[in-house]
Design goal:
By secondary structure, the chain is of the alpha/beta class. The chain is 40% helix and 17% strand. The chain folds into two domains: 4-170 and 391-408, Phosphoglycerate kinase, N-terminal domain (Rossmann fold, 3-Layer(aba) Sandwich); 179-378, Phosphoglycerate kinase, N-terminal domain (Rossmann fold, 3-Layer(aba) Sandwich). Strands 5-6-4-1-7-8 form a six-stranded parallel beta sheet, with helices on both faces.
Length: 409
């Protein structure tokens, strides 16, 4: 792979693929974490005289968070202290004119790349190369810098399409993420503890299966919906309300897969011993083995309980490597943040080399000022794909581009 410092960018046009896809509430961005994460690369390129064309996606078609990049331009302008113009076009005539008129040290941001149909789908690199997006923009750009680690598990035109046409260079964030994830995955230190929470069930099950089978994990602690699935798979009943919820999300089918993993690795997978529900507007903690668990029939579980936090925290003290993805509960509601914050604090307090990832997880880390985590990853799905043993198309594309253009350095 190239390094960002390998090339001279003065007066060169750089297409900079970022992942500024951010959580939104009422149409407004509520976390600038992914913006701040790419600042070192953006500042480096601007200081070295690049003409910057920034591209990102935001949300998915028909989602609430599928929005224009107008607000992204404002946030970038504030953080970079220069005017980053919002260009309401992607590869049409207007965008191409704006790109052509850029001067050294100037930056624009294109419209949400997923407004273009080709970008909203994934396809192999050679198909991405033939898209209108790549064919229209390639003649205007000199370099392709990709700092969108959080989308490195997707193969779409703006992420891989320029790899064989222009030098494709990882930004500082991309380099840092890959280094940290590889360190955790390949380290011989032990014990290695994985914490799987949140709602990405199939990705999390794949991680559990991969790291246990390959001996990369010695213990898996579960929470969030991942914890519910494993708890059901262990034969515990979490009540009608929680069965109905998993059913409505199409997640019940995953219990069989979780059972299969447990058949082989039961002692290595820990599930919550207590849970918190919303009982008449208040947090109520219920032990999984108590009679009160009848309340699970009418009340959704929204967090792990304090006893689970305590147990997990003790286990984390001995860990040498910790990898965590996804929250333990609905941390957006203050009274149900206890599990997520408690477990993340325990990670921060341990001496282990630790990685925590996932858009929601990051938001809770900043909101509750949790310190001491070695690497906070911007990647949710990308991080899970990596630890799930999948090949990441963007990482593959870096290698292809390096082989093709290495003589140009
Ligand atoms: C993410 O937030 O995980 C990335 O931006 C990728 O988004 P996607 O899952 O919609 O491709």
């Amino acid at each position: 792979m190239f390094k960002l410092t390998d090339f001279n960018y003065h007066n060169k046009t750089v297409f900079f693929r970022a992942d500024l896809n951010s959580p939104m509430s009422k149409g407004r961005i509520i976390s600038d974490a992914r913006f701040k994460a790419v600042l070192p690369s953006l500042i480096y390129l601007l200081e070295h005289g690049a003409k910057l064309v920034i591209g990102t996606h935001q949300g998915r078609p028909y989602d609430d968070e599928f929005e224009t990049t107008e607000e992204h331009a404002k946030i970038l302008s504030e953080l970079l202290n220069i005017d980053v113009e919002y260009v309401e076009d992607i590869f049409g005539k207007y965008a191409r004119e704006r790109i052509n008129s850029l001067k050294a040290g100037e930056a624009i941001i294109l419209e949400n790349l997923r407004f273009a149909s080709e970008e909203a789908r994934t396809a192999p690199l050679n198909a991405c190369e033939r898209t209108f997006f790549v064919r229209k923009l390639a003649p205007l750009i000199d370099f392709f810098v990709n700092d969108a680690f959080a989308t490195s598990h997707r193969s779409s035109p703006s992420l891989v399409g320029f790899a064989r046409i222009k030098p494709m260079i990882p930004g500082f964030l991309m380099e840092k993420e890959i280094k940290a994830l590889k360190r955790a995955y390949e380290s011989d230190d032990s014990p290695k503890v994985y914490i799987l929470g949140g709602a990405k069930i199939d990705d999390s099950l794949r991680v559990a299966e991969n790291v246990l089978k390959s001996g990369k994990a010695h213990l898996i602690l579960t929470g969030g919906l991942v914890g519910h699935i494993f708890t059901f798979a262990k034969g515990y009943d979490l009540g009608d309300a929680n069965v109905d919820f998993l059913h409505s999300k199409g997640l019940l089918d995953f219990i069989d897969w979780a059972e299969k993993i447990l058949n082989e690795f039961y002692p290595y997978i820990r599930t919550p011993v207590d849970f918190a529900i919303d009982y008449e507007g208040e947090r109520l903690e219920i032990d999984l083995l108590s009679d009160e668990k009848a309340l699970f029939d009418k009340h959704s579980i929204l967090d792990i309980g304090s006893r689970t936090v305590e147990k997990y925290s003790q286990l984390l003290k001995k860990a040498k490597i910790i990898v965590a993805n996804g929250p333990m509960g609905v941390f957006e509601r203050e009274e149900f943040a206890h599990g997520t914050v408690g477990v993340f604090r325990a990670i921060g307090e341990s001496d282990a080399f630790s990685i925590v990832g996932g858009g929601h997880s990051i938001a809770s880390i900043y909101k509750y000022n949790i310190e001491g985590i070695s690497h906070i990853s911007t990647g949710g799905g990308a991080m899970l794909s990596f630890f799930g043993g999948k090949r990441l198309p963007v990482l593959e594309a870096f290698k292809i581009s390096y082989e093709r253009f290495k003589d140009k350095v």
